[in-house]
């Protein structure tokens, strides 16, 4: 899960930097879900079998979907750190609103409306060059990545201490989340 989370984050960051705003939010959601699912399995190692049995049967599919509902994942995160759970929910909801699910915010953020009302055409952007929008998506990608790191810090406490990155993460958290 850690590596899948890392790869989803890298994809989100790359898309954000390239101007693929809507698509970046799809990857941000994936990044958060990988981190959250990893913490759920860490908290209850028996849930790994439930996760892995998703495609084994209809019952396995139902059990996996029930066990790994995002509300339950958020509650698990809250059992470790309530502030982190709030950040997780904020960024998860934002990822949904801006691209992880088709909706007006996502669709309209990639539209260019005509300057004159008489024009009857609009442009759907594959890549945005709007500086405000690019700053928004890049900042969100960074915040999602940091949120995922904080989730994994609960799983790999000793490793984070050995690497000496806890203080730097705390500093980034206080400045950016």
Structure in words:
The chain has a two-stranded antiparallel ribbon. It has one domain (2-176). Helix 2 (21-43) packs antiparallel against helix 6 (82-100). It is mostly helical. The chain has helices at residues 2-18, 21-43, 47-52, 58-67, 70-80, 82-100, 104-108, 131-155, 157-163, 166-176, and strands at residues 111-112, 123-124. It is built from ten helices and two strands; from the N terminus they run H-H-H-H-H-H-H-E-E-H-H-H. The mean pLDDT is 91.
Question: How would you describe this structure in keywords?
Answer:
single chain; 177 residues; mainly alpha; 10 helices; 2 strands
Largest sheet report: 2 strands, antiparallel
Task: Note the total helix count.
Answer: 10
- Cα-atom radius of gyration: 18 Å
Overall strand count: 2
Termini Cα gap:
23 Å
Strand order of the largest sheet: 1-2
| Whole-number tally of structural domains | 1
Strand content: under 5%
Give the helix level as a range of percent.
over 70%
Parts with pLDDT < 50 across at least 5 consecutive residues = none
The helix-strand sequence is HHHHHHHEEHHH
Provide the residue-averaged pLDDT: 91
The chain-level structural class is: mainly alpha
Shape: globular
């Amino acid at each position: 899960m850690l590596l899948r989370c890392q790869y989803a984050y890298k994809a989100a960051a790359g898309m954000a930097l390239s101007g693929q705003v809507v698509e970046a939010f799809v990857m941000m959601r994936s990044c958060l879900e990988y981190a959250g699912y990893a913490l759920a399995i860490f908290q209850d190692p028996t849930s790994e079998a439930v996760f892995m049995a998703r495609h084994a049967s209809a019952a396995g599919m139902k059990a996996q979907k029930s066990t790994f509902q995002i509300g339950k994942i958020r509650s698990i995160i809250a059992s470790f750190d309530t502030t982190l759970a709030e950040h997780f929910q904020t960024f998860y909801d934002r990822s949904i609103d801006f691209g992880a699910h088709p909706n007006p915010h996502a669709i309209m953020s990639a539209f260019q409306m005509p300057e004159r009302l008489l024009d009857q055409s609009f442009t759907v952007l594959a890549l945005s060059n709007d500086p405000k929008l690019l700053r928004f998506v890049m900042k969100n990608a960074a915040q999602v990545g940091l949120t995922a790191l904080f989730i994994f810090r609960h799983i790999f406490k000793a490793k984070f201490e050995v690497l000496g990155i806890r203080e730097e993460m705390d500093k980034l958290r206080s400045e950016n989340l």
